[in-house]
Design a protein that fits this description.
The protein is 75% helix and 0% strand. By secondary structure, the protein is mainly α.
Length: 81
């Protein structure tokens, strides 16, 4: 019998803390209309141009960075000889 009293006790505690809210009738009717309407679903295709430009800009930046580091290393090698 004690097993059934614990859930009821929790339910009573929740009921004392939580007070039900009644939404306005116009909100309910508007929501019902929106739920009943058939929506149009459009699948967007990915924009490959942005992806290609991003990859190319990363490759160019990497090549420039590699060239700059290589130039700095050459300068220090010449200076140490």
């Amino acid at each position: 019998m004690k097993n059934y009293q614990a859930p009821l006790n929790i339910e009573d505690q929740l009921e004392s803390f939580l007070h039900p809210v009644l939404p306005p009738d116009d909100f309910i009717s508007n929501l019902q209309e929106r739920l009943k309407k058939q929506t149009i679903i459009a699948v967007e295709r990915p924009d490959y141009l942005v992806l290609i430009l991003l990859v190319l800009s990363g490759l160019v930046f990497g090549a420039i960075l590699f060239w700059m580091i290589q130039s700095i290393v050459r300068i220090f090698r010449k200076g140490s000889r």
